[in-house]
Every structure is written in C-alpha cells, then in structure tokens.
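B., you asked whether I could sanity-check this one before it goes into the benchmark set. Here's the sequence:
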Amino acid sequence: MGAVVGTLTMQTKQRRPSRDKIDDELEMTTVCYRPEGLDQLEAQTNFSKQELQILYRGFKNECPTGVVDEDTFKHIYAQFFPHGDASMYAHYLFNAFDTTNNGSIKFKDFVVGLSTLLRGTMREKLEWTFYLYDINRDGYINREEMTEIVRAIYDMMGKYTYPALKGDVPQQHVDAFFQKMDKNKDGMVTLEEFIIACQEDETMMRSMQLFENMM
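And here's what the prediction gave me:
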C-alpha cells in the first residue's frame, strides 16, 4: 500500500510549483472522468484541499484518464516488488479500493480508502484491513481466504521473504492467525474477533501506526 502512496507523492514533487486555487480547481475537470469537487472530497476524507490537490496531480500523472483499471494498478504496484510477483496481492488490494465492484478505481475511491488508512481511527483501519482479507465479502475470514492472502504476500516479497518460503510455511502462518483470532474456534474470523485480537497484538498496532507517517 505504501508503494502506491509513495509513487504518487514522489512524482508530484517533481512537477512544477503549485498554481493558484482557481487553476487547481480547473485542473480537476480536465480528465475523462471528472472527480468530485474539492469541497466534497474534503468533507468525505481527512485530507485538506492542498493535500487533495497534491494527490490528484500524482494520480493523474499515473492515470491520465482519471480512472485506474486493474492491469494499470498491478503495473504500478509491481514496480516496487521487482524480485517477486505482486500481481495477486495487487488484485486483492485493487478489489478493496474498488468498492463499487465495477472494475475500476476513480480518484474518489482512491482518496477515501487512503484517508482511512492514513488518517482514520484505529478501528476504521482495522475494518479496512478486514475487508481486504475478506475476499468473498461474506463478513468472515475463513482459512482458504487467509491462505490466499498469505501466499500472495510471500509471492510479492519473492526471494526476500523471511523465513524462506517452504511448502508448509503459509499454512503455519494461517494456523497462527486462526489460533489468535478465532476465539470461538468455528473456523471463521468475524470482524469483532479480528479487531479485538489485533488490538491485543502490539506488532499489528505498530504496523497500523506506520501508515500515519506516510504523508
């Protein structure tokens, strides 16, 4: 996730200095897909207008049409994991941002999700993460879903995965996940089980807090 934020903000810094507010408002209307107005996006997110303008320039630089399809999203994400295969994890991440399930991410979709990850409450961040892991959107995380996520992460990290991937390593991670999360041992993790277990896990809390330092 950080990779996507990084590429957008870094490329924005390489562009010319900010223009005045009128020009910024006009720029928001020049692509094929017209995003929500700055005032509306500011109300829907935890970003200021200036931050939204910076994010939009980076977004448009990567996606001139104002809409990101899955192939483009995978291409962007893959640049940050050259020694692995990030396609499967990018697929799950794309689906988490594509809240309307129409096969594309608009600027609004992107900044609303990003606002949650960077500026949301801890519960909001955990709810978003749960939604990412709940692949079939049935309100539960089952073992099959968690196994797919873990394998996607190992594939993405490639040769830098530690410990080195062996046949049973993903299953070990899944077993540990369910031992910690599945309080009633029914083979499924609910949102509340997930949130409670994460809040009791210092490592998970630290990883969530890292998002706060990315902008």
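One thing to flag: Strands lie at 67-69, 104-106, 140-142, 188-190. Otherwise nothing jumped out at me.
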